Amino acid sequence: MIKVVFVDYMGTLKEDTNSHGKAAIVRISEHSTIQDVNETFKIWVEGFYRLINESYQQTFLTQDDIALNLLRMFENQYGLKDDISELLKVLQRSWVTSAAFPDTLPFLQNCPLPVYILSNSYTQYVSDGMAYSNLGPYDGIVYGDMVRAYKPRAEIFEKGLEIAGCKPAEAMHIGDSFQSDYLGAMDAGMRGIWLNRNGKSVPEGVEAVSDLLQVLPLLKG
User: 75 by DSSP, 3-state: which?
Assistant: First the structure.
Protein backbone atom coordinates (compact mmCIF):
# COMPACT_ATOMS: atom_id res chain seq x y z
CA MET A 1 0.00 0.00 0.00
CA ILE A 2 1.35 3.40 -1.00
CA LYS A 3 1.80 5.74 1.97
CA VAL A 4 4.08 8.47 0.58
CA VAL A 5 4.42 10.19 -2.79
CA PHE A 6 7.75 11.55 -4.01
CA VAL A 7 7.68 13.91 -6.96
CA ASP A 8 10.39 15.44 -9.13
CA TYR A 9 10.73 19.25 -9.43
CA MET A 10 12.02 20.57 -12.78
CA GLY A 11 10.08 19.20 -15.74
CA THR A 12 7.48 17.69 -13.41
CA LEU A 13 6.15 20.40 -11.10
CA LYS A 14 7.71 23.33 -12.96
CA GLU A 15 8.82 23.92 -16.54
CA ASP A 16 12.46 23.32 -17.42
CA THR A 17 12.99 26.68 -19.12
CA ASN A 18 11.68 30.23 -18.92
CA SER A 19 12.64 33.67 -20.21
CA HIS A 20 15.69 33.87 -17.92
CA GLY A 21 17.01 30.45 -18.92
CA LYS A 22 16.42 31.15 -22.60
CA ALA A 23 18.10 34.54 -22.22
CA ALA A 24 21.21 32.88 -20.81
CA ILE A 25 21.40 30.43 -23.72
CA VAL A 26 20.90 33.25 -26.24
CA ARG A 27 23.69 35.29 -24.58
CA ILE A 28 26.04 32.31 -24.60
CA SER A 29 25.29 31.71 -28.27
CA GLU A 30 25.66 35.34 -29.34
CA HIS A 31 28.89 35.87 -27.37
CA SER A 32 30.61 32.66 -28.48
CA THR A 33 31.73 31.13 -31.74
CA ILE A 34 28.64 28.92 -31.92
CA GLN A 35 26.05 31.62 -32.79
CA ASP A 36 23.28 29.00 -33.29
CA VAL A 37 20.94 28.97 -30.26
CA ASN A 38 19.69 25.44 -30.83
CA GLU A 39 23.22 24.10 -31.06
CA THR A 40 24.17 25.99 -27.90
CA PHE A 41 21.21 24.49 -26.04
CA LYS A 42 22.11 20.99 -27.26
CA ILE A 43 25.71 21.37 -26.08
CA TRP A 44 24.51 22.72 -22.72
CA VAL A 45 22.06 19.85 -22.13
CA GLU A 46 24.58 17.19 -23.12
CA GLY A 47 27.19 18.75 -20.83
CA PHE A 48 24.71 19.07 -17.98
CA TYR A 49 23.76 15.38 -18.03
CA ARG A 50 27.37 14.33 -18.41
CA LEU A 51 28.32 16.25 -15.27
CA ILE A 52 25.26 14.97 -13.39
CA ASN A 53 26.31 11.40 -14.18
CA GLU A 54 29.92 12.08 -13.15
CA SER A 55 28.96 13.85 -9.91
CA TYR A 56 29.16 11.27 -7.15
CA GLN A 57 30.63 11.30 -3.64
CA GLN A 58 34.21 12.65 -3.89
CA THR A 59 33.56 14.05 -7.38
CA PHE A 60 30.17 15.55 -6.47
CA LEU A 61 29.35 18.94 -7.98
CA THR A 62 26.59 21.20 -6.73
CA GLN A 63 24.04 22.68 -9.12
CA ASP A 64 25.98 25.96 -9.08
CA ASP A 65 29.26 24.07 -9.68
CA ILE A 66 27.79 22.31 -12.69
CA ALA A 67 26.54 25.57 -14.20
CA LEU A 68 29.90 27.27 -13.61
CA ASN A 69 31.79 24.35 -15.16
CA LEU A 70 29.60 24.53 -18.25
CA LEU A 71 30.02 28.29 -18.55
CA ARG A 72 33.79 27.89 -18.31
CA MET A 73 33.64 25.12 -20.91
CA PHE A 74 31.91 27.52 -23.30
CA GLU A 75 34.54 30.12 -22.43
CA ASN A 76 37.47 27.76 -23.09
CA GLN A 77 36.15 25.74 -26.03
CA TYR A 78 33.81 28.15 -27.79
CA GLY A 79 35.34 31.54 -27.02
CA LEU A 80 32.52 32.79 -24.79
CA LYS A 81 33.14 36.44 -23.94
CA ASP A 82 30.66 37.46 -21.26
CA ASP A 83 30.43 38.00 -17.51
CA ILE A 84 30.36 34.44 -16.14
CA SER A 85 29.14 35.50 -12.70
CA GLU A 86 26.28 37.48 -14.23
CA LEU A 87 25.29 34.57 -16.47
CA LEU A 88 25.21 32.31 -13.42
CA LYS A 89 22.83 34.76 -11.70
CA VAL A 90 20.56 34.68 -14.75
CA LEU A 91 20.49 30.88 -14.59
CA GLN A 92 19.82 30.92 -10.85
CA ARG A 93 16.85 33.21 -11.42
CA SER A 94 15.54 30.80 -14.04
CA TRP A 95 15.62 27.91 -11.57
CA VAL A 96 13.35 29.86 -9.22
CA THR A 97 11.04 31.74 -11.60
CA SER A 98 10.15 28.97 -14.06
CA ALA A 99 6.39 28.55 -14.43
CA ALA A 100 4.45 25.81 -12.70
CA PHE A 101 2.54 23.40 -14.91
CA PRO A 102 -1.25 23.91 -14.74
CA ASP A 103 -1.77 20.55 -13.03
CA THR A 104 0.82 21.11 -10.29
CA LEU A 105 -1.23 23.10 -7.78
CA PRO A 106 -4.41 20.98 -8.13
CA PHE A 107 -2.31 17.85 -7.66
CA LEU A 108 -0.64 19.14 -4.49
CA GLN A 109 -3.94 20.40 -3.08
CA ASN A 110 -5.79 17.15 -3.74
CA CYS A 111 -3.15 14.50 -3.09
CA PRO A 112 -4.43 12.41 -0.14
CA LEU A 113 -0.94 11.33 0.92
CA PRO A 114 2.18 13.13 2.16
CA VAL A 115 4.18 14.61 -0.74
CA TYR A 116 7.95 15.04 -0.73
CA ILE A 117 9.84 16.73 -3.54
CA LEU A 118 12.80 14.57 -4.56
CA SER A 119 15.02 16.62 -6.81
CA ASN A 120 18.50 16.97 -8.22
CA SER A 121 18.07 20.74 -7.77
CA TYR A 122 19.47 22.40 -4.66
CA THR A 123 16.90 22.77 -1.87
CA GLN A 124 17.01 26.59 -1.79
CA TYR A 125 16.11 26.83 -5.47
CA VAL A 126 13.29 24.33 -4.98
CA SER A 127 11.85 25.99 -1.88
CA ASP A 128 12.19 29.47 -3.38
CA GLY A 129 10.68 28.27 -6.65
CA MET A 130 7.71 26.67 -4.91
CA ALA A 131 7.14 29.86 -2.91
CA TYR A 132 7.55 32.02 -6.03
CA SER A 133 4.70 30.12 -7.72
CA ASN A 134 2.64 29.82 -4.52
CA LEU A 135 2.69 26.02 -4.67
CA GLY A 136 1.75 23.71 -1.84
CA PRO A 137 1.21 21.94 0.38
CA TYR A 138 4.16 19.57 0.47
CA ASP A 139 5.92 17.85 3.33
CA GLY A 140 9.61 18.25 2.58
CA ILE A 141 12.43 18.41 0.04
CA VAL A 142 15.03 15.72 -0.63
CA TYR A 143 17.95 16.82 -2.82
CA GLY A 144 21.22 15.50 -4.19
CA ASP A 145 23.50 17.53 -1.93
CA MET A 146 22.20 15.56 1.07
CA VAL A 147 23.92 12.40 -0.12
CA ARG A 148 26.37 13.79 -2.71
CA ALA A 149 24.59 11.85 -5.42
CA TYR A 150 21.99 12.62 -8.07
CA LYS A 151 19.15 10.58 -9.51
CA PRO A 152 19.08 7.85 -10.74
CA ARG A 153 21.61 6.75 -8.08
CA ALA A 154 20.08 4.82 -5.21
CA GLU A 155 21.37 7.06 -2.42
CA ILE A 156 18.97 9.93 -3.08
CA PHE A 157 15.94 7.63 -3.17
CA GLU A 158 17.10 5.89 -0.01
CA LYS A 159 17.46 9.28 1.70
CA GLY A 160 13.91 10.12 0.72
CA LEU A 161 12.64 6.90 2.25
CA GLU A 162 14.60 7.61 5.42
CA ILE A 163 13.18 11.12 5.76
CA ALA A 164 9.62 10.02 5.01
CA GLY A 165 9.95 7.03 7.32
CA CYS A 166 8.63 4.45 4.90
CA LYS A 167 9.68 1.30 3.07
CA PRO A 168 10.32 1.21 -0.68
CA ALA A 169 7.11 -0.73 -1.35
CA GLU A 170 5.16 2.01 0.45
CA ALA A 171 6.45 4.81 -1.79
CA MET A 172 5.57 6.13 -5.24
CA HIS A 173 7.86 8.40 -7.24
CA ILE A 174 6.63 10.54 -10.14
CA GLY A 175 8.93 12.25 -12.60
CA ASP A 176 9.36 13.30 -16.21
CA SER A 177 12.74 11.62 -16.81
CA PHE A 178 12.39 7.99 -17.82
CA GLN A 179 15.98 7.22 -16.86
CA SER A 180 16.46 9.31 -13.73
CA ASP A 181 12.96 9.25 -12.27
CA TYR A 182 11.17 6.13 -13.44
CA LEU A 183 14.06 3.67 -13.67
CA GLY A 184 15.79 5.17 -10.63
CA ALA A 185 12.68 4.75 -8.51
CA MET A 186 12.01 1.22 -9.76
CA ASP A 187 15.60 0.18 -9.04
CA ALA A 188 15.14 1.54 -5.50
CA GLY A 189 12.08 -0.68 -5.02
CA MET A 190 9.52 2.12 -5.31
CA ARG A 191 6.51 2.26 -7.57
CA GLY A 192 7.68 4.40 -10.45
CA ILE A 193 5.31 6.58 -12.47
CA TRP A 194 6.66 8.13 -15.64
CA LEU A 195 5.16 11.58 -16.30
CA ASN A 196 5.13 11.49 -20.07
CA ARG A 197 3.94 15.02 -20.88
CA ASN A 198 5.15 14.93 -24.49
CA GLY A 199 3.39 11.78 -25.65
CA LYS A 200 6.50 9.70 -26.21
CA SER A 201 6.21 5.98 -26.91
CA VAL A 202 5.72 4.10 -23.64
CA PRO A 203 7.67 0.83 -23.29
CA GLU A 204 5.62 -2.23 -22.47
CA GLY A 205 5.01 -2.66 -18.76
CA VAL A 206 5.85 0.95 -17.87
CA GLU A 207 3.25 2.83 -15.80
CA ALA A 208 2.90 6.26 -17.40
CA VAL A 209 0.59 9.28 -17.16
CA SER A 210 0.35 12.42 -19.26
CA ASP A 211 -0.39 14.78 -16.36
CA LEU A 212 -0.18 14.74 -12.57
CA LEU A 213 -3.92 14.63 -12.00
CA GLN A 214 -4.04 11.16 -13.56
CA VAL A 215 -2.03 9.94 -10.56
CA LEU A 216 -4.73 10.85 -8.01
CA PRO A 217 -7.06 7.90 -8.78
CA LEU A 218 -4.09 5.56 -8.35
CA LEU A 219 -3.74 6.69 -4.73
CA LYS A 220 -7.27 5.85 -3.63
CA GLY A 221 -7.98 2.78 -1.56
Answer: helix
Q: How far is CA 91 from CA 23, 70, 71, 96, in A?
A: 9, 12, 11, 9
Cα–Cα distance between 51 and 61 in angstroms, integer? 8
Show which of 96, 112, 139 is a domain's final residue: 96
Give the domain extent around 68: 19-96
Partners of 192 in beta bridges? 173
155 class by beta-carbon count within 10 Å (0-12 exposed, 13-18 middle, 19+ buried): middle
Count up the domains in the chain and report the number. Answer: 2
* Reported confidence tier of residue 117, pLDDT bands at 50, 70, 90: very high
178 and 92 co-located in one domain? no
Look at the alpha carbons of 116, 117, 118, 123 in this order and tell me if their dihedral is positive or negative: negative
Q: Do 211 and 124 sit in the same domain of this protein? A: yes
Q: What is the mean pLDDT of residues 1-22?
A: 91
**What are the pLDDT digits (tens) for 57-76?**
999 999 999 999 999 999 99
H or E element, residue 132: helix 123-132
